[in-house]
Amino acid sequence: MLSIGVGLNSKNIMGGAADDNTPSRGYESGDEGASGGGEGGTLRRHRSESSIVATEDEDDDHDKKIELGPQCTLKEQLEKDKDDESLRRWKEQLLGSVDINSVGETLEPEVKILSLAIKTAGRPDIVLPIPEGGTPNGLWFTLKEGSKYRLMFTFQVLNNIVSGLKYTNTVWKTGLKVDSTKEMIGTFSPQTEPYTHEMPEETTPSGIFARGTYVAKSKFVDDDNICYLEINYTFDIRKDWQ
């Protein structure tokens, strides 16, 4: 699969689901036919009293709402018990070296994608301008068929910790989805210095059927499903870079 391109391979196209014909559990043989010698053997499902009670308890738990404790900003957390040396060291181990100048007064983190680039050995990096509206004008970039490359991006985290930042990319050709990628980037504390992340190396497909124009959507989201950047774009795979 490709992180920003497309993967036309057998595991994407030919992937199949597992067989679901396994008999379900929770049934017992009847008194007759249990040993295979009787006629009219029946299967009977038994619900014990304990299973009924458990089901009722699950229903009650489903109706209950989880009450969270009071939430506070990261700045408030850092200032709590600041005179307690052991707690201060514990917070440093947990959060790392947090830049207090990057910590805001809000609960929500702020993630800014600063740059995107495609790196290929022996060639200058293809620097991708980040569009303000999320949709580049015209073709965003061109890749050569059968070439190896990496996607690299830098980003900044402000205000609060961002948990489970992910990069997702979906690619279509002639209206058919040909690739879908999800890359876990990680959890990051706020700091003024930008973070840098490189995706694993990928290889563009080759051949007459791989060449052409593709439509794609890239997103940066976290565990709370907050989207920090969404880009809808088109790109080409050609015989050469131009």
Automatic annotation (TrEMBL):
Keyword terms, alphabetized: Cytoplasm
Subcellular locations according to the entry: Cytoplasm
One GO CC term, this protein: cytosol
Single biological process term from Gene Ontology: Rho protein signal transduction
One MF term in the entry's GO annotations: Rho GDP-dissociation inhibitor activity
Pfam families listed in its UniProt record: Rho_GDI
Keyword Cytoplasm appears in the UniProt entry: yes
Predominant location: cytoplasm
Record carries keyword Cytoplasm: yes
InterPro entries: Ig_E-set (IPR014756), Rho_GDI (IPR000406), RhoGDI_dom_sf (IPR024792)
Disordered, as annotated region: 1-70
Similarity field: Belongs to the Rho GDI family.
Name of the protein: Rho GDP-dissociation inhibitor
Organism annotation: Arachis hypogaea
